[in-house]
Write the structure tokens for this entry.
Amino acid sequence: NAGVTQTPKFQVLKTGQSMTLQCAQDMNHNSMYWYRQDPGMGLRLIYYSASEGTTDKGEVPNGYNVSRLNKREFSLRLESAAPSQTSVYFCASSFSGTSGRGVGETQYFGPGTRLLVL
Amino acid sequence: QKEVEQNSGPLSVPEGAIASLNCTYSDRGSQSFFWYRQYSGKSPELIMFIYSNGDKEDGRFTAQLNKASQYVSLLIRDSQPSDSATYLCAVTGYNKLIFGAGTRLAVHP
């Protein structure tokens, strides 16, 4: 049981290049999330998918696109990378978003992808 | 006003002391409240969650929730150097969690 996995672990891009960050979970969770974390900024939500077939913008969606490929996989794409997108990216999953009792909304995080855009 | 506010720290406590971490939130509709720990260079990991007013204890950790004051705290008893990390508070929003920026805790021997 691997939990949440992310690939790659580290990536260097040049400005204008594109790439896709991959995320997969094996916990049969319905909801998946992409965050970025910058020093002093905490976790900022980029996009989320409350269930298979749906995606919604989070706090900082500009410059990103997502695909909920199936229940297990949720990818994040940078079409034209910019230095401002240098960050650590975390994928997370939860059983649901709104159970109201904590268990359903508990998010489990992947190990992160460190992205450097030159 | 930020939706979830935490003092960035660092909060420095001696080994064996009680560390008290605080968090306030703005949405009165939030139902569940979470504390995550994040070691440097690692991903956040859940410590505990709470959804009822009062205290919830798990080992050396106690979460306290006061919905009327929109305040949630985490107490760490008998603090150890291994507790040195950033502690993230999170509250439920619509289909998502809203995270604070975190408080850095340093436990010194």
